[in-house]
Amino acid sequence: MGVRLMVVDDHRLLAEALASALKLRGHRVLAAAAPAAGAADLVISRAPEVCLLGTAAPAEPGAFDPVLRIKRERPQVAVVVLGPVPSPRGIAAAFAAGASGYVRHDERIEGVERAIMKARAGEAAVAPQLLQGAFGELLNPAAQPDDEGRRLLEMLTPREVEVLVRVADGEDTRLIAAGMGIAPSTARTHVQRVLMKLGVGSRLEAAALAARTGLLDRAGPLPHRPGPAAGPGGPAAGPE
């Protein structure tokens, strides 16, 4: 029996080709393409059994936000992510968001169909070699954590390093802004740049990566930022 599914991807040609191939194999395809910004709305409104959701950059911040929303509003929909060869962290982020599987864009149609059937049955749909890579990194996080920590540290500006340390300390945007003497919008921009440079999708992932690689130890303590000095007439005025 065919599966009622959707193929949602920014690349219309890829989406339509995959949809056509799946129709020929007896599946009912509800839609073939949509921009990333509208993917969740489209899936929520049509409520398929399985959604094949394309992403070009699984490491980008917010890449799996549509998955989170779909699973929150339509938990019965199984989402299988279509994407490039991911890092193990990319696979982990997809599943953490609620995806039922991850399939490479260059997978054969038979492999895509197997993933669809597994997802509909409630099973994890991911190629064994990708799963082995993810488990391998979890079991052996880094052969040379110091080298990786140094490499990551060199990617960040001194201000971004301070932002990362504050993120690892659990500070939210407001506290980061206050501690660094910058506007909250500027602090938010710094955080997004740090996530992008580290190739992670959340503050929690950034903190875990920094701790695992020894980056926090290399960064050192936060700089001391004294408040405004008191004037001759008494204590310094507080913020307005």
TrEMBL record:
InterPro entries to which the protein is assigned, alphabetical = CheY-like_superfamily, Sig_transdc_resp-reg_C-effctor, Sig_transdc_resp-reg_receiver, Tscrpt_reg_LuxR_C
Residue intervals of the Response regulatory domain: 4-120
* Bias type Gly residues, positions: 230-240
**PROSITE patterns hit by this protein:** HTH_LUXR_2, RESPONSE_REGULATORY
Q: Which UniProt keywords apply?
A: DNA-binding, Transcription, Transcription regulation
Q: Where is the HTH luxR-type domain?
A: 149-214
Using the UniProt annotation, give all residue ranges assigned to the region (Disordered): 218-240
Q: Which residues form the signal peptide?
A: none
- Tell me one Pfam family matched here: GerE
Protein name (record): Response regulator transcription factor
The record lists the organism as Streptomyces tropicalis
Q: What is the lineage of its organism?
A: Bacteria, Bacillati, Actinomycetota, Actinomycetes, Kitasatosporales
